[in-house]
Amino acid sequence: MVSPEALESVQQLASMWRVIVEDYGERHATEDVSDLPGMAIRWADSKFGFWNCITFTWPNTDAEALHAHLGKAAAYMRRKREHGLIWLFEELLTQEARAALPDLARRAGLTMTMPLYGMAGTVMPMPEPSYSDLRFVRVTTEEALTAYADINSCAYGFPLEAGRDGLLGSSLWMSGLYAYLGLQGDRPVAAAAVAKSGDALFLALVATLPEGQRRGYGEATVRKALFEAARGTGLSRSVLHATAAGAPVYARIGYRHVATISAFGLAD
């Protein structure tokens, strides 16, 4: 039996990435937003690989269905110009399918790139954040959005052009989200964004420059984005999808682990 929170995590990812990819498509006309049996395709074909993803959506997927889905997803990815990821929530798989996953992925020409975690929690109310080393600025200009993109590119190992391709020119990121920069002096060092997604706040694209990590900058900027989003929407529940490095930070804020995700890319 798949837990309601795990299903929520899958649905929120597919829903929010639809918004993000359609926003990209308004500027570049390269997007594919499709809901196929068992998989949600959200593919911007952007140099910013996070915007290119396929999420498997069927609960209780057995080994035979998983084999078919992996093959179809891998074939789709090989037809695209840019690289992307398959997001596979382990909670959606039967025990047999989980055991078979490594072999089935290998046979489809896929390799696991990183573990991820679906997290959720009622994180509000919280006090308005303050941090002696930082000041916070909402992203409302192209200059601020460029800094936001560059922080994410540096933090996640993309070339600067990739993050800029994914974000620049987006009215969504400059006015539709609660996107914030944390500045040390006049230098942006951390970034976080929150969107209203149904009855929850969706936290995404959190990053800190490598030289600013382990100083609390990322957590402080997350708290600021959440605080302002909650004040603007009245919502208190939040969902996110975290890397292994980020999960302990979000646990301190009040999120709980609700799903385990394997992200797969093409092996060749």
Task: Calculate the mean pLDDT score and round it.
Answer: 96
Whole-number tally of structural domains:
2
Sheet/helix structural class: alpha+beta
Report the total helices: 8
Low-confidence stretches: none
Give the helices and strands as they follow along the chain: HEEEHEHEEHHHEEEHEHE
- How many beta-strand elements? 11
Described by strand count, sense and barrel closure, the largest sheet is: 11 strands, mixed
Based on CA inertia axes, which overall geometry fits? globular
Indicate the percent of residues in helices: 40-55%
In percent terms, what proportion of residues is strand?
25-35%
The end-to-end distance, rounded to whole angstroms, is 35 Å
Q: What Rg is obtained from the alpha carbons, in whole angstroms?
A: 18 Å
| Physical arrangement of strands within the biggest beta sheet | 1-2-3-4-11-5-10-9-8-7-6
